[in-house]
Amino acid sequence: MTNISSHKHFILVGFEELGALRPVLFLPFFLMFVVSLLANSLLVYVVISRRALHQPMSILIAGMACVELCLPVFFVPNMLLNFLFDWKGISLIGCLIQMHFIHFFGAFQTTFLVWMALDRYFAICTPLYYHEVMALQRFIRFVIPLCVRNALLITVFVSLAGKLSFCTDRMNHCFCEHMALVELACGSTSINSLAGLMAVFLIPVFDFFVIAVSYVRIFSSVLKSRSSGAKALHTCVTHIIVLSFSLTLALIAFLSYRIRSGLPAAIRVFFSTMYLLFPCFFNPIIYGVRTSEIRQHMLKLLAHWRYYVKVFSSTPASCFCLL
């Protein structure tokens, strides 16, 4: 009997339809990668360095920025090398490790939105008990179960994917995404598809459901008490914008693998990539602009940096050569 599980090394051929134009993709993805790293780093630094921002919502925003600072590191550099130098190879072990970290950090993109929605719910619907409920020892009961859920579900479907036998080594993607690897398997992959569906319904779908319920309660509370309505709506609009973009990209990426249609492979790979990368690029800019406290501290920090750069550039070179 022929050993059909011999493929332990894969070739990533995402966007191969572009042919000679494929290296052109390096520039836009590189710019998004650099901006996401700089914007998220700045956001984390501002929250950590400013004592006035050491409050639950700002800490949650900084936590999301940390996730979105780490997530692109696990797949974008490899993708850029693929575009520029045609480095397409990856081992099965490397693929599974990359897949685990991508999906693990990707899961926390919606999980942090859940925690932010809960923060807004407690702040607007139960303001008298807000600081008591959002104390770390109490809020941790909302944190630990979701962290365990994410780690367990991601580990299960990645482990199942590693046990498959693969008939081909050409993966039509730019990094190791779960369904892109499962499609290469020989025989039945129903268990893998079921595990993937369970992860989808128990992480992003469940998270979006909790967020939706929280905001229904928030808006009903705002309608009953109009005094704090304007401030509450302004606070929540940022999260709704981020949620809308995340949900749209997630649904397109999910349906592109489950529904067979005339959608070109390059379009499917594009949405599957942007589902992970675009929030890392988009969210810190949105939070930095729309969250007034963070925006003010960012502007102050940038003003200080601009002042020091101006002083440094105007200082004669002879001042640095004193002996």
Can you describe this structure?
The chain has 323 residues and is mostly helical. The protein is built from 11 helices and 3 strands. A 3-stranded mixed sheet has the order 2-1-3. α2 runs antiparallel to α10 and α9 packs antiparallel against α10. It is globular and about 60 Å long.
Present the secondary structure layout.
Elements: E1 9-12, H1 26-49, H2 56-70, H3 76-85, E2 89-91, H4 92-125, H5 130-133, H6 136-162, E3 170-171, H7 178-182, H8 190-224, H9 229-258, H10 265-290, H11 292-314
Parallel strand pairs: 1-3
Antiparallel strand pairs: 1-2
Helix pairs in contact: 1-2, 1-3, 1-10, 1-11, 2-4, 2-10, 4-6, 4-8, 4-9, 6-8, 8-9, 9-10, 10-11
Give a short synopsis of this structure:
With 323 residues, the protein is mainly α. It has helices at 26-49, 56-70, 76-85, 92-125, 130-133, 136-162, 178-182, 190-224, 229-258, 265-290, 292-314; strands at residues 9-12, 89-91, 170-171. It has a 3-stranded mixed beta sheet with strand order 2-1-3.
